[in-house]
Every structure is written in C-alpha cells, then in structure tokens.
Fold each of these.
Amino acid sequence: MTLATGFRRTGRAVFAVLALLCLLAIGILIREVVKELRFLSSASSDNVHWTLSQAEVEFLEFRNAVNWARTAPETPLSTVIVEFDVFYSRTSTLANGSLYSSLREDPAFDAPLTEVRDRLNAMIPLIDGPRDELRANLDDLAAQADEMRILVRKIATTGLQHFALESDALRTSVAVTLLRLAVLTGLLLLALAVLLMHARRTAQQTEKRGKELAIAYARLNTILNTSLDAVVVTDTQGRIQNFNPAAERIFACRLKDVRGKRVGDIMVPEHLRDAHEAGMARFAADGDHRVIGQGRIKLEAMRCSGETFPVELAIETAHAGEEQLMVAFLRDISHRVAAENELVMARDKALAGEQAKAEFLAMMTHEIRTPLNGILGNLSLMEDTKLSSDQSRYMRNMKISGELLMRHVDAVLDVARFESGADKSQEDVTHLGHLFQDIVDSQSSAAHARGNALQWGWIGTPEEWVEVDSSRLQQILLNLLGNAIKFTREGRITIEAEVIERGEPAKIEIRVSDTGSGIAEADLARIFEDFQTVSHQVSDSVGGTGLGLGIVRRFVQAMDGEIGVESTLGEGSTFWLRIPVLPVESPVEEAGVGPESEAPSDLEILLVEDNDINMQLAYEVLVGMGHHVTEARNGQEAVEIAGKRPFDLVLMDIRMPVMDGLTATQKIREGDGPNWDAPIVAFSANVLPEAKDRFAAAGMSDFLGKPLQRSELAQIIIRFCAGRERRVKLEGNTPLLVEQKESPMEKLRHRYMTETASLFEWLAELPEDNDAIADRAHQIAGSAAAFGQPGVREALLLVEQAAEAGDREDLVVAISEAQAAWKAAPEPSLVG
Amino acid sequence: MYILTERFALAAGMLLFVSINAATAAELDAPTGPVLLTISGELANTNGDGTAAFDLEMLRALGATDITTDTIWTPGTITFTGVELKTLLDHVGASGDEIDATAINDYTVVIPVSDAVEGGPIVAYEMDGELMSRRDKGPLWLIYPYSSNSEYRTEVIYSRSIWQLDRMAIK
C-alpha cells in the first residue's frame, strides 16, 4: 500500500516535471520562432548588396562626370557637383548607417572607407568653391578619382564578402533553429505520447477499480441479502438506514416502511425502551457503549406486529465517510430458546425421575431386607433345634437361597449407593499379599465344593505394602472370584498379580483366570454393563442380578484403574484390572486388640425394638452370648428405663411408634442421665449411607444391620466394651436366664396367638378409642406376616387405616373382615 | 535594373503628359524659391504644364509633421520634419494608384498610393530641425515611421524610403 502510494507519488512528480519541461520547451520554441520570424519579417537590411554596388556605380558616375567635364570645357560643372554630392551621401550612409556598423568593425572595410571619406572631405572646398577653380583642377580631380577607384572597389568587395558570410551565418542560425524546432517537436510528441499512455493506464486502472468496486459491492449486497441473520444499519441517532431481507422477514416489516424511523420506536419492546434510550443517550454523550463490540448478547426484540421474541444481538460501529453508523446483527432465537426450555424441562423431569427411582430403590431394599431378616434369623435359630435329615437339607437350601437373595439386594444397594456418590473412595495402608490370601482363604471352600483348585501368586517382584482402597479392591476380587467359581467346575482358578509400572504411584495388574465355560465373543462387550447376564448352558449355575460386573467396573474406574476381559468359549476367561497404587513403607506392627480377642460377656444391654419377632430374635442372640437384656418397646420406654440405671450398651431400633430411635437417642444424650455417654448403636434394616449419617448426627455411636449377625454384634461389643471398666456392677452373678420348658420359638408362637386372640376379643366389643385400635392392629399386623398369616396382616392393616381415618362404618367392616381372615388363616408358624 | 526603371519612367512621363489636358485643373501657387519637388501625372491641381512644382515654402505651408525614429542608414534616433505624403497628394488632387518616385540620381521606386495614410510616411525636409543638404540625403527624403510599427521595418518599405527625392509621377 505504502509502496504503491510511493510509486504513484514518484510517477506524479515525474509527470509534473515532464509537463513543466514541455511547457518550457514550448516556451523556448515559441520564443525562438518568434525571434526568427521577427528577424525575417522586420528586415534590418536594405538591399545591402545593391547599396554597396551602388556606391561603386555612383563613384563611377562621379568619375565619368569629371572626365566628361575635362573633355568638354563648355559643359557646366553642375553634373560633377551633383554626382559628388550623391556619392558623398552614399559614403555617409556607409560610414554612419547602423546597418553597416558590424561591417565597419572590419578594418579591411573601414580603412579604405575612411580614406575615401577623407579624400572627399578634402575635395569639398574645391567642389563648393568657384567654378573656375574647379574647372582648373579637373585634371587633378580625375587623378584623385583614379586613385580612389581601387579603394571604392575594395569597399564594395569587402562589404559583399562580409554580408555573404553574415548571410551564411543567418542561414546556419535558421537551420539550427529549425533543427531545434524539429527536436523540440519530437520531444513534445514523445511527452504527449507518454502522457497519453499514462492517461490511458490511469483510465484503465480507474475502470478496473470501478469494476472491482462494483464486484465488491455486489458481493456485499449478496452477503447482506442472503444472510440468515437480520442486519440493521442505523445512524448514531438510531434511525434506520438499511434493513436486509432477513431483517424484513424476522421483524415482519418492509424496508420502505421503516427507513428513517427510530429503532427504539419500532424494534424495542416497551419494557426495554427506557434502557435503550438511556444507552443511546450515553453513547451520544461520551461514546460510552456497553453493548457495542461486546459480541453476542441476548435480548428481547419486537416485531412490527408488536409480538416480542428473543434475539441474539451483536452491534458494531462503522464509519462511512464522515458519518458514523451502527450495524446490528440479530438472530431470532425463539426456536432455540423454546428448545432449551424443553430440554431444561426434560432434564428436570429426568432428575425427578432419577430421584424417585433412588427413593424407590432405597425403600424397596428396606422393605425386602426386613422380612428377609426374619427369614434368615429364624433359619439360624431353627438350625439349633432338632431336625430330621430331610428337614436339615431343606433348611440348608432355604438358607442358601435366602443368603443369595440378600446378596442380590446388597448388590442393588451397592449400585444405588455408588450412583448416589455417597460411597467415597477411602485409601488405607494394606498388605496386598495378606489381602489376596484372605480372599483365597474365604473362597477356597466354595471353590473346592465345585471341584476347583484355587491359588494366587505374584509374577515378578511383589509390591507388598501399598496405599489402596482395600475394601473396594476386596469387593472387586470377591466378585470376580465368585464369578470364576460359579462358571467353573473341576477346573483351576488363579489370581496373578504383577507390578507393570514402578514409581509413585505404581501400577499393578491383577488377573483372575479360570478354566471354565468362557464367554462368547458377542457377549464380551456388554458384560460390564448393568443388568447383563450371560446366557449359558451350565445347568447347575445360579443366575444373578447382572449387577456384579457393573459394580466391579464402577469401582475400578473410581480407583482410576481399568478393567478388561479375554475369553475363549469353552476354555476359560481371564479378567484383568490395572490400578494405580502408592507404595509405602511397612508400618510398624503393633500388638493391638485383634478380632480374635475374647468378646466380653455378661453385659447389661438395653434392647429397644417395637417388632416382637425382631425383639425376640435379638433377645435370643444376646442372651445366647451370655448378656443381660432389658427390653423397651419404643423410644419413650427406652428413655424412661435409661433414666433409671446405667447400661453397657443400648441397641436402638429407628422406626418405632410413640417415639423413634433418633429422638430417643437425643433425649438419652441430653442432660446427665446414667446413660448420657453410653454407646448407643443403631439397629436398623435401613443401611443406606445417608441414613447412617443421620444416625451419627443424632448422637448414635455406630450402626448394626438387621438381621442381627452374631459376628457383627461381637465386633460392636468388642469395640465399645472390651477392656473398659464395666459401666454396670451386677448384684450377684446369676444370669437372668429363664428356664424354658418350651423352645423359644414355640413360646413366641404361643404369645402371638394369645395376643391376636385377645385383640379380636377386644375389637369385637368395638372400643371407642380409634388410636388404640390402630396401634394394637399395627402391632399384630407386624407379627402376622412372620407367622405365615399374610391375610391377617393385610386385614389388620386395613383396620389400622380405617381407625386412623376415624371412619366408624369402614372400621366395623374392616374388623369383621379381619376376624374372618383370622379364622381362615392357617396355623401360625415361624416360616419365611 | 536601375537602367530599366529609368526608361520605363521616361515612357510613362510622356504618356502622362498627353492625358493631363483632359483633367480639370485648379491653379496652385507658383513656386518662388528653388523647386525641390515636381509632381506630375494624374493631378487635379497644378501650377503649370500639368505639373505641380513645390519650393520649400510651399511644402512648409502644407503643415509640418514630425517623425522621431531610428533608421538603418543613420546613427542614433532622429526627428524628421516634413509634410505627410497623404496631405501632399490630397493637395495636388492626385487620383492614381501608384507613385513613381525618382531621386536626383534617377533612382526610381514605385510607391502605392495606399501607403499615404495619416500617421504614415512624410516627405521630410528637416533632420533634427535642420534642412537636409544634398550631400546628406537631402533636400527631400521620404521617411516612414519605422519605430512605430514593425510593418514599416521591411525591405520593401526600406526600398521605398527614397532620399534625394525630386520628382513624383502619379499614375
């Protein structure tokens, strides 16, 4: 650009100089020509040649007159005088005329002329004197004339020669002038040609630029006209200057209708108008702009029909000559906004659905686990009774099925817990070898039962002590091992561990290989997805929820690891996982209280449980372990009992009538009652993590799941009571063991039957107290299912509902139906 | 050339002489001094023999006109005094187109009558206030105002500037 401008400037300067030179040349030319013309037109010379020769002629006339006068004495002498005067006059002209001044500078001309003039002047006295004297001297005069002849001749020839030379010079000068004229004409023509070429080139450039401009303009117009965005051009006052077709379409108005109108009046919705005007005023005042050049912003605009709609807007300023313009690009985003709103709604719905699902899942697992507890607990108790061999076999089968069902429920709970994000990764220092050994030990009996050999080992140098989420790793391996055992019969199952990357963190690969049925290639891709079960022909294999590997995958990913499988159908499978671990120094072994240490017995325990069956089960377990148990039916009772004497441990159910476990715990913790600092352990079927948090917040020390497991209970007792000073000093050493004539279950059944019978007797009298009816019906309904009388349970729940609703008519109907159900019900028995 | 012109002038003079009788003549004053100029040919007014002869006093009586000019024959600027050719021709009632002007030495030149305009040539008798002698191109010299106009500085005009003029024949 600058270079081109430079060239153009130089070019202009060159042409200016050229034009100046041309003008100068023309000026000089004109001057020369005028000079020559003037010289030629105003002849400075008379006919000099003639004049010179005339001088000789007149001299000869004078000489003739003298000679004639000598030969004819009678002739008057006036002719001689006249001829003298004429010749004298001629010599005067030669001596004085400006025409001959250059000639006179030549001594060859001037010397003879001077001599002739001197001689003539010498003759004047004689010529002007008396005629006689003149006549007497005629001979002398003739002699002098003879002498002068050669001089006059010399004057004439010298003059002629001089003027011939001068004429030559003149011709040369004319020739030179003409030559100059020719050269200058040539130069002039050349300059004209150059100017012409320049003019032509300039014209071409102008034409080319014009075309380019036209093309650019057409292109710009095409862009504007085909733009999908509205383009609105206004002046700084907001008056519309231009409006492209897209703008006409979007705003539903014609350019001719809006040109010159103010944007604020026709395109800005009324509620934004004040802000718009304020912005325009601000811009006009000090050029302050919040919108211009800020990229796309979202606003509302108004169509000519008055309808408002959302737009995306970008404004820039531009200069067209002196004028400042504002160019607005607008996009109608009403469709997009609508779509976004739909998406947001869909997402909200999905989230609500997800929430509902999670709640449903939690509730379902709770609802399933509670009766399952009953089944498994009773099975445990039944094992201690006398059974025939068939009964023992059925018992075992039932127990296996029950435990399997519990595992499935736990798997679903695992997923729910993981998805809820509550299950955070927890690294701890672990000895990998011990971990593998423990797993192999725990699974070896299951493996042997199917004729499988199970072993594990390191490949290469082991990395023993590491920091890793050991509980998850354990769960992963148990799951994989469980699968391997499940799908392998009379085969070999191997766990191999190998460090594949040293450093911090290091990376280890763990492979669980089996020689089992293998997995079809088509199934390999989906086995890590949820609810995927592999169809198989192994008749004795047990189906699953299809959640196991899904949980494994989640855990591995949560540990920043990866997992995969290689398998050949009929030959076996290898599941591998690679996880990062942080190698650590082996911790100093400390002799602490191991799980093996003896759990203390003979403790005073307060058991709070509203459900009779569950109460009885827990009671049996605790008493069986040698503890003293005090029962409380609800939170209120528990608070009262706990206020009277100290306990070593309180087991507190959560969901109870009158007062729930959380409130009761808070009340016991408050003040300075004898149990304000006693360990209070939640005792609930609700094992969701958020529930545990709630328990802890209420002041509970720990959590114990239902059904009550002896081992878990022992752990809790060790943790809170072992090695401590006993909180309760017993008076006497006799345990409060009741002599039992019947088995505990039989006693329970009897009690259930008695209580139920008394309920119906009471109900038959149609008591007035609805709340009492609801409570007692609820109590018995809670036990009825456990005693194999679901019909009674359903009927009593209806009675409870009717009593709570206070509808006497419904209540009467419900009571009569419940009585019918009670009569129709099978003999109560404690079977799941 | 000089010889030819002289003969031609002589023949013309004889022809003019014949035709003068037919003209209506008005009598001019007769010269009392030496005659400086004799005009012949197509004249209305004469002073004997169909010619008009002028002495110095008669020329002076026609009114004097000055021309200050350079000439190619003289040094410096000179003021010539004389009678305008037009005045002279009007005075003699000349009716021809051309004038054959002849000098003492019979040098003759043809001057068109159209040269005789106001502000044009004069028949000069004084140079810088002094009468011109025959030895100094006198007594009469036809002077054009050379300095006033470049058209008076051509060879034709120079050739018409006859000095030692003593006769004019109008035809």
Amino acid sequence: MASLIAGGVDCDVHPAVPHLTSLLPYLSDYWRDQVTTRGMVDLVSQSYPRNSPIVARPDWRPETGKPGESLEDMQRHVLDPFQLSYAICNPLYGVQMVFSEDLQAAFCRALNDWLVKEWLDRDPRLRGSIVIPTQSIDKAVAEIERCAQDRRFVQVLMLVMGDTPLGKRALWPIYEAAERLNLPIGIHAGSAYHNPPTAVGWGSYHIEDYVGQAQAFQTQLTSLIVEGVFVKYPRLKMVMLESGVSWISPFLWRLHKFWRGVRMETPWVDRASLEIVRSNIRFSLQPFDAPPEPETLIRLFDHMQSDELVLFSTDYPHWQFDGQDALPEGLSPDLVRKIMIDNPHATYPRLM
Amino acid sequence: MNIQFREGLEAASPPTTKTAIADCDIHPARATRTELYPYLAKRWQHHLEIYGVHAYQGMMEGPPYPKAQPNASRRDAYPPEGGPQGSSLSFMQKQLLDPNNVQLGVLNPLNTGQGIRNHELSAALCSAINDWQIDKWTSKDKRLKASIVVGNEDGLSAAAEIRERAGDKNFVQVLLLSRNVEPLGQRRYWPIYQAAEEAGLPVGVHAFGFGGNPITPSGWPSYYIEEMVGHSQCQQSALASLVLEGVFERFPKLKMVMIEAGFGWAPSLAWRLDKVWQRLRSEVPHVKRPPSEYIREQVWWTTQPMEDPERREDLFDVIKWIGWDRLLFATDYPHWDYDEPSRVLPAGVSEDNREAFYLGNARALYGIA
C-alpha cells in the first residue's frame, strides 16, 4: 500500500447518535415532550443496518452500542493512528427520513448541537457538517446560517437520495447560503427513502441499496450540472462522500457526448462537464471501488485527467479496508500528498 | 447525428467495398397509426380507438421528456414516400443496410405493448408487433432479424409468447426494456428468463420504458438530457438486480444483451459489485460467485451510443476490461444519436478485434452463420 503521511484530513468519519434519547437534552420542551409522549423510536436508516458487515469493521465494532458512538474509540481507531490533523464528522442519523418539516427541523437542530457538544468540543481535530431539514428550504437555510457562526462547521450535509434531484431550482437558496458562507455541500451516500432507492424501483436487498448509491451519485451529478448550479454559484464546491470513484470518467464521457448533442435544451451550461467537475466537484476516497492491481488504478486516475478530484477518507467506522490500508496500491507520493492534505484544504476553506 | 443522404455518395461507395457489419439496434416504425390493426382482434382495435393506451406515465401521446428532434430521429431519415423515420423498408435499405453493408440487422421495435398498465392489451399488442415484424420486415429482407417483444409485466403471458415464437428463425432474441414496475431481477420476470433460456434466445434489455418509478432514485429530473444520460444508471440498477437476485445463477445458459445504455460503466459496476459482495454475501447466499464472473460470462453490450472521451485511447482501457468479445456494434438507426459505422473505432485496433466488434460477436451470439 502507498504510505500514509502525517497531518492528513479525513473527510468522512461517522459519529453515531447512541439513541434518539441522546438528543433529548438538545430539544425544546415541546419537542422533548413530543418525542416521549408519542413514543418515538430511534431513527435508524435502512441504508446502514447496525449489524451489517459494511457498517463497521470487525475490529472497530464496539462490544455494546452503535459503531462510531464513542469518541475514545474514534481517537484510538483513526485520529491517532492515521496522525490526522482534522477529521470531518458526517452524522448519518436518520433525520432525513422524517416527512414533517417542523419535526425534521427540530431534529436537525438538536443533532447539530449534539455534534458540537459531544464531539467538536471534546477533540480539537474534529470538524462538523451541518445536517439540514430539506423538507423546508427556509428552515434549511436558517439552520445553515445558525450553525455557520461556529467556524468548526466546515460543510453542509445532504443525502444523495432525497425528495428531488439536487439540481432542482427550489433547492438553490441552500446553495446560495453555502457559497456565501464558504461551506462546501457534502453529498453523502444514503436515502431518505422518499423515492425507491433505484431508478427502476425497489430492490430486495441491503446489498442492492448499497451498490445503487453509485448510480444515485451519477444522476445527481447530471442534475447539478445541467440545471446550472455551478453557473449560478461558481465558487460553490460539492463533495461526493462515500460515492465510489471508478465510475467518474466513463460517466463524464457519456454526459459530455449527450451535452454536445442536446445542449440547446440547457443553453446556460457554458462549459464541458469535465471542466465543471474539475473546478467544483470532489470525491472522497473510500470506498475505493477498483480492483487491487496498481496498473488499473493508474489508468483510472489518468482517465480523470486531474489529481485534484479525490479527498482522503477512511469512512470510519464503515468497513472499506483493513488495517492501515486506506490508500490503494499504486498512488505516487505526490498524489498521496494531494489526496491527504492539499486537496482537502483547497476544498474546505474553513479548515485552518 | 444527421448525415446528408445523397444519391452520388451512394454511387461512389458501393457496398461491396465495405467490410460487412452487424447492426444490433435498429428501430422499425409503423407508417400509419393503424398499421397494427390487421394483427389485432376487433376488441382491441375498439379499445385503442376509445380509450387509447394507458402507460405507467401521464402522457397520452408522446413522451414526458420531449425529444431533441421529432421521434428522436435523424431529420434526413424521413422516407420519400412519407411516414415517420424508420417506417419504410426500401428507404432503410437505401440509407442504412446497403451503403453500410449490414449483413445482420437486429430489429428492436419501440412504442409497442410494453409498459402498458392493461396487461391483456399489452400481450395483444406485443403479439401483433411480432407478426408485423415478420410481414413487413424480416420476410422481405433476409438480413433483418426480429426481437420477440413481450408483455413485460406479466411474466407468464410473456413466456407463452416466447414459447410460441421459439424455433422461428425470424427471431434472434427476446426484447425487454430497462425501466419496469420492478427491477428486472425480481421474480415476476423469471418466467421470461426461463422461456428464453429454453428457447436458446438471448434477452436484450433496451434502454427506456416506464414502470411508474421516478427515473432517478432522488425523484423526477427536469430535462431530456437527464433521461438520456440516466439510461445508463437505470441499466446499471437493472443489471445489479439481475445479478443479486441470482438470475444468472438460476439460469446459467441465459445470455443478456445491454442495448443502448453505454458500456463504459460496466467495469466500475462489476468492481463495485464484487467489493460489496465480499462484505455482504451472507445476505445473498444464492449469489455463489463474484458478480463480475456472471457478468463476464453471460452479458453482452451494444456499442451505441459509444462513450466519447477526449482521449479516444482511454476507451480502449475500458473495452479491454470488458473484453473485445462482448461488444456488439449498433447504430440505433434512425435515431438522432446514430453512431456512424466508419467513425466509431479509431486506427490502432487489431483486425481480429475490429472484426469481432463489427460482426463476429453478433454472429456468434445470435447464431447467424
């Protein structure tokens, strides 16, 4: 494996909310009462069943509780051994599945405050993503503006499968706020399950949902590019988290061919999609979905025609690699430095 | 792309000077609205006149995403005698088959009985389309071969249609579309695969169709380009479903052809499936081997629309990872995004690979001498 270097930025770690009751101290009296009197249960998404092998590495799985719920474990498993300068916390608690914008806004606010108190305040290497209630654009923007006052929040977090394609204009106030406040939009694997998790309907299996994340990222990239998000917000960065990377180039070849054919339909798109991706889109490293042969990896990175697209991630505590082998074989020392340090800092202006 | 068709051009390049090719995705059209009526019972003719066709999408006429050109077809493909593009055999011969020396042309009719909510009507229309393919096309030009179009949402009636046509040399495959009510690996479609395997016919899965699901996993997109690019994502999900439901394990002689959805994504999908299967195989014990093995052995890909990298040689890496023996050349005639046979492969491809790509693989798969 390529050698890790000290001072890297892990762009995708997942602190777990132990239980909905963990958020009670961060809810208003009204919502605390709602949660308890209505008997609301823990918000666990089907995207990440707690005992699924992919959800925690065997040696990262605690004896009790949810994988990722202990700061001490995270320090011992990744922050210390990988000698990280920063790790960006992306909570995957199932608040996006809620339909009521009021309830969702209350949960998101509590989740963000919980992250500050239970994680960011307890380790100076940790940074946070703002989870937003997308059922209401107004409330989402308000939550971004509220949390952004804390410089330790470095991005806004959305799921790759929500209610609508992410390029849709109704969502643009979120992007306006993010660009204005120097916050990239992190788009993470997972579904609100408000739509079937594949474009051809409901599959049968968890494995099918997980494989399907890559196709969801592809349709979202198309949407973001052709709707013109980056024409309107040229400084906005978006980071595809837990997306896989080996599909990027063939996907862009196809998008480019059709854009050349039917660009009259979206005349505001003034640049080739590969150029837009180079300037505005980044991808987290894990899960690295290419075969282990270095020669294949070298070809894949060459196809991307850029060494700035990929950002280091362990995807802690998910099981994407073993031991310290977070970097696939075949990366040059220069590329390792770009992936672990330079690219994350160029992407997240609030890391300093 | 649109190509100006001129008499002089044809004279300058007689077919005998061109290497023979197979075109594995040709779309024949009806010249008139009622062209299928002779093949339909009176009951269904009346039904169509009064109620029309209710699909799994809202538009009574035309597609919900307006095409880039009328009928998504080349502007130069209107037959001189009138009718829509692709509706005249003589003009198809003159514009496509003769000048390109097409030795094998596989017909994939669209806008048939597939994706219709009334499953009885669906079966009747599909059967009619199959009769029509013989009468209007394959019986009149031996280069053309038909696809058995089946009522996709009713596996049993679809299987019956396949069994009825099995052994008829006019047909070389069974045709499905990628977007259905459920992902294609689901049990409701298994009778189709069983009948196809028994008949020794590949199942082609062509991009398009409607099954009532939003065409992205995050809802309905806005634009035609999103639908077109998105066909490759729909196809990936359909193929993942076929692998993970164990269709290839259950029907080991079944061959499937991914039609008009690109192929550049195939290696990445196979790698991803393998990697995730290593972790989660206990959930799908019926998938006994790494998913990439089933794909490598049982799946073929038509080429159009070829992915188009800035550096053409990058595509060769992808073809090498898939296998030169698994690609089937296709033009998609008469559609606007037609791939011109003489331009899709740059120099530097070996003679063997070139022959396999343009003709050999298709002849072997479809059993054409």
